[in-house]
Amino acid sequence: MSDTRMRAPRRWPAVVAAGALTAAVVATGAGVAVAADEDRDRARSGQGRANNVILFIGDGMGAAHRNAARLAGVGLEGDLVMDSLDYAGLIKTDAADPNGFITDSAASATSYATGVKTYNGAIGVDVNNNPVQTLIERAESAGKATGLVTTGQVTDASTAAFGAHVENRSEQTEIARQYIEETGVDVLLGGGEDFWYPAGDPGTFPDAPAEDPAEGSRSNQGNLVQRATDEFGYQYVTSPYELTAANGEKLLGLFANQEMFQQRPEGQGDIYDPVVSLEEMTRKAIETLSQSRRGFVLIVEEEAVDEMAHSNNAQRTIDTVLELDKAVAVGKQFAEQDGRTLVITTADHETGGMAIEDTGSNDESGDGVSAEDGPFPVAGSAFSFNVDWTTTGHTNVDVPLTAMGPGADRLAGVHENTFVHQVMLESMFRARPGR
């Protein structure tokens, strides 16, 4: 940890078995057990105060993306884990951009992170480029542990908005510097090694790999990995073994030059095979952050949903939603055991104008990248479905949200994305009126 912030002493060991979280709290004494039961009862009703917040963002994941994954993964009678949470709502995604109201990931994530609408490309700043305190900064100032996890670059828009302030999302090396030197995010796991190493120093992952020769180190602020480890006490890992073995309170893991996948149309070099799965990164993040007695804030993003939908690649889009769902299962299990954790799953926006269609109709979208995909089998049935697309860009469709734990009941209904920030903040730091 940095010298400027004292971390509360550990409350319990956070050992995680492969495939399952151990109990987050080991209660000793009848009084403590009863209190824990009361916490869980309040959490199930959406009431009480949250000690922890876990926000899952499926970048670009609209209702059709979730539904296609449900049909392919668990069938007509099944539920994704993210759809089994206690409360459901819809989130509006408009940006405050003079050039157009349809948001990008930076503006939307900034709304979740700060409660302020802003322009596309903005990271943690308002429409006048003024920095706005983020949820993670608020948590850090209260002594809570914090983490950012993604299959994209850990310095890209959806995670960056919670831990940095820049006028343009492209400033990824500056974002990395702010993470370690200013915000002090405790756990950083994802891709984007290129932005941490200067040109000519490839780090762990070679420059110009065959799957994408354009990838290569490009930090304009020197070797930030070395600075993170030498000056700020981060433990640096780049492999599944190193991640499992890591035991520090400050953890930096970079597992790819750029994204932890290759986003392209079907059969054109599309690859989704992360060095470490989102599920594993989420489990390790919770294991590490839950050592803080004062609680934690964790942001988990599956970036590949958006990138595969931009390529109108339905198979990979379905695959990546199902991968996100595995991570949500880790968060849900922890929250059920802990009783004081608000869990939210949602998206920053919808990508692709995705639709689910039957297999008997003609493909009205024509040829090219937006051609109809499928058929895909409906799990456990004789049915199948096609996926069609209307665009390779973002849309203004409201995105679904599901939630559980303290404060979750407030998210039922239709809300602006800024309201999600308000609920997360107030659930941790201010008791809601009448509770």
Please write out the topology.
Elements: E1 16-17, E2 20-21, H1 30-44, E3 52-58, H2 63-73, E4 87-92, H3 105-114, H4 135-141, E5 145-153, H5 157-163, H6 172-183, E6 187-191, H7 224-232, E7 235-237, H8 240-245, E8 251-254, H9 278-289, E9 296-302, H10 304-310, H11 314-338, E10 341-346, E11 350-351, E12 355-357, E13 373-377, E14 384-388, E15 394-395, E16 399-404, E17 413-416, H12 417-429
Helix pairs in contact: 2-11, 3-5, 3-12, 9-11, 10-11
Please tell me about this protein's structure.
- The chain is of the alpha/beta class.
- The protein has a single domain (49-356, 368-429), classed as 3-Layer(aba) Sandwich (Alkaline Phosphatase, subunit A).
- Helix content is 31%, strand content 18%.
- The chain is built from 12 helices and 17 strands.
- Strands 7-8-6-5-9-3-10-16-4-17 form a 10-stranded mixed beta sheet, with helices on both faces.
- The protein starts with 15 loop residues before the first strand and ends in a 6-residue tail after the last helix.
State the gist of this model.
The chain has 435 residues and is α/β, with parallel strands linked by helices.
Helical content band: 25-40%
Question: Secondary-structure element order, as H and E?
Answer: EEHEHEHHEHHEHEHEHEHHEEEEEEEEH
- How large is the share of residues in beta strands? 15-25%
For the largest sheet, list the strands in their spatial order: 7-8-6-5-9-3-10-16-4-17
What's the level 1 CATH class?
Alpha Beta
Low-confidence stretches: 1-35
Profile the largest sheet.
10 strands, mixed
Overall tally of structural domains: 1
Instruction: Report the count of strand segments.
Output: 17
- Helix and strand composition category: alpha/beta
Count helical runs.
12
| CATH fold label | Alkaline Phosphatase, subunit A
CATH architecture: 3-Layer(aba) Sandwich
Round the Cα radius of gyration to an integer and report it: 21 Å
How far is the first residue's CA from the last residue's CA?
35 Å
Question: What overall form do the CA principal axes indicate?
Answer: globular
The CATH homologous superfamily: Alkaline Phosphatase, subunit A
Mean pLDDT rating: 89
